[in-house]
Amino acid sequence: MTATKFPLAFTTTPSQRARDDAEREAILADPGFGKHFTDHMVQITWDIEHGWHDAEVVPYGPIPMDPAASVLHYAQEIFEGLKAYRHADGSVWTFRPERNALRLQRSAQRLNLPELSTEDFVESIRQLVAVDAAWVPSAPETSLYLRPFMYASESFLGVRSAQKVDYRVIASPAGAYFHGGIKPVSIWLSTDYTRAGRGGMGAAKTGGNYAASLLPQAEAYEHGCQQVLFLDSVEGKYIEELGGMNLFLVRHDGALITPSTSGTILEGITRDSIIQLARDHGHAVEERPVTIDEWREGVASGEITEVFACGTAAVITPVAVLKTPDFEIGDASAPAGALTMSLREELTDIQYGRRPDHHDWMTRLV
Ligand code: PLP
Ligand code: COI
Q1: Beta strand 315-323 pairing with 77-79
Q2: Which structural domains are found in the chain, ordered by start?
């Protein structure tokens, strides 16, 4: 075993069962989202005595796990999501990975897991994408979705923070997150359930937040909606975020309005980037509490002209209608808004290397 040295040195064990070119190309022709995985994965181990050690790229495969591993009982787990993009010259890039590293560190603090340095995080991505570079698709709007995650692997049923932790990165070729590409989506307002409370884990990217969203998400599907919207847990009137995306409203004067990050929502990297791009173009951006009534009345009066969701998986997705048990806001057949689509085009142009990267957001991987 190699004890923690900074930065970590990775070893690579090539897979003996890597898919051949024809099998891989068949998958890349229609990747969907989160269904197929590349030939390798990263693993790094941590224990209380040695810190982070044994950084490896190994063949993708099942994780042997003791039934008493504490993640299976107490859900001490965090994850990230980012993408690798193929540019026209064949090179492969990722978007603001140091932001994901910092967010993983903040999630680690909240879940009392060990922090992985930004340098080791970015290197773990680079190592995996270097080995599985052929899995980065090149068709328009496709990418390789990267999923770093960390979990308590110690076999111990006492309730305390684990003294043995594993970090892994897996990768999955990705097309559009929603069926039907970038068509406007419908969202469902959860009135019975909230996602996060004050002092809770809402700002952490931890599995428990997603587990809590699954029942209301199922309700959303029953009502013909693709995502669920949560309100604040205290007053039940402020909009927070969707199950897996942040939300923006666009005012008729071109201003963007988005709920502030006050500890109960995920601080989205796409959200932050949209705020920057909008400000670059002279749009006002208001990060503040937004009530469901402001949205409803704003759409009725013509004050609110567009609504969109954003995140790594969703990029920027127009929202056509919000359905609630009592009323609807918007119209399911509404077309995508003009500002929504121009922000989407600008963001994806930067990510795919089609326009200059003025903010130094892109990191070359291969
Ligand atoms: N909110 C939630 C709950 C998410 O899962 C995500 C996706 O990661 C986001 C917001 C958007 O975050 P980002 O733009 O960093 O992907
Ligand atoms: C992402 O956009 O990366 C997400 O995590 C959303 C969802 C796939 C969980």
Answers
A1: unpaired
A2: 11-174 (3.30.470.10), 185-351 (3.20.10.10)
